[in-house]
């Protein structure tokens, strides 16, 4: 099936290999998938090709010179392609046994790699996935533009953009793009501090309800006896202390969006009542005689893992099905460490402006240290750390000590060895073994191993690099 196209935007791929038979066979395989397929058997011609056409995908061999197996040529041309056409997805082709080179290519900006001799189905799937990802980024242009022009948003904190260029956060943006214009209820999963509220507001802003109310209620902060009144409202005299009528948040959100943060805190009996409201589209206040029709879209969020949500004694499964027509899982910051420099720069701009300070410089060494830190509080912790550093430092450059992470810094080699003496099954060792076992089980197939582990391909690549597998 041919990749989607528009009148002004034909799908395109450039295949670069010094073997003309390879070029011909790949072209035949991809002929029905792309509108434009161009072949290049001399890598020095790559800049000329890129000057004439903006390609969605480039399929690039790693070695060109006779008897060459270092991959240096492929890495060089990968760098050139990324410089000339950074929006193009580059897939590396490498001989079997050169997986270490492929990992190096991924670190240098390649989107994926395939091993020669390739399986036709695998090659087609990899190229198609790269093309789909490229088009999803195009669809999220508005969000990417926000990331590149953060200063225009600094005076409006409620309009903070979703910042990130990692594949995992771009996939989140693509899901938002596809689901926001609909009226589908959405469930957002993620650890504390990952930005669930930010995602909910973005969905509302991209929906047809953006001219109506966005009502946010944190169910984790409400006393148990007040849940029903907060959500459904009450009539004067309905109970002791009800001295006047109260409009519930559900009615307040009529024609708009209701965001139920930490929805798993809702007591079981009220889960039943909420399910009834969502099913019948009407709500009855405490003490009222008649129900009132409501038209709302519900976005719910929780920090509970999905496995706990599936416990029927904790959360009604029929309500869960009603809430998660679309489900979005936000990654922890440690799973998208490549986005940390972007986030740090954004928060440096924000708080330098807020506290009337000159924006300090931050070295690559310090950024790398921040990327190695686990950030248990996720983006919220990073934001607080940057704000604190801006407030307490008078220097023109920020160092890792300014972020005050010493109490929970990444373990040093010495501390790891010390801990291993008292805790032989240290968590990192367990994770390393699980990754190793999954890779062995599927003979190095990244997609199958990642699915087995319940993580993304990008997250698996990072663990392969981390544990030197």
From TrEMBL:
Residues modified as 4-aspartylphosphate are 61
Domain Sigma-54 factor interaction: residue ranges: 162-391
Superkingdom of the organism of origin: Bacteria
User: Known PROSITE patterns for this protein?
Assistant: RESPONSE_REGULATORY (PS50110), SIGMA54_INTERACT_2 (PS00676), SIGMA54_INTERACT_3 (PS00688), SIGMA54_INTERACT_4 (PS50045)
Q: Which InterPro entries match?
A: AAA+_ATPase, AAA_lid_NorR, CheY-like_superfamily, Homeodomain-like_sf, HTH_Fis, P-loop_NTPase, Sig_transdc_resp-reg_receiver, Sigma_54_int
Q: Does the keyword Nucleotide-binding apply?
A: yes
The leader peptide range reads none
User: Response regulatory domain location, by residue?
Assistant: 12-131
UniProt cross-references to SUPFAM superfamilies, sorted A to Z: CheY-like, Homeodomain-like, P-loop containing nucleoside triphosphate hydrolases
Q: Does the keyword ATP-binding apply?
A: yes
Give the UniProt keywords, A-Z: ATP-binding, DNA-binding, Nucleotide-binding, Phosphoprotein, Transcription, Transcription regulation
- Name the PANTHER family for this protein: ALGINATE BIOSYNTHESIS TRANSCRIPTIONAL REGULATORY PROTEIN ALGB (PTHR32071:SF113), TRANSCRIPTIONAL REGULATORY PROTEIN (PTHR32071)
**What is the protein named?**
Sigma-54 dependent transcriptional regulator
Q: Which organism is it from?
A: Spartinivicinus poritis
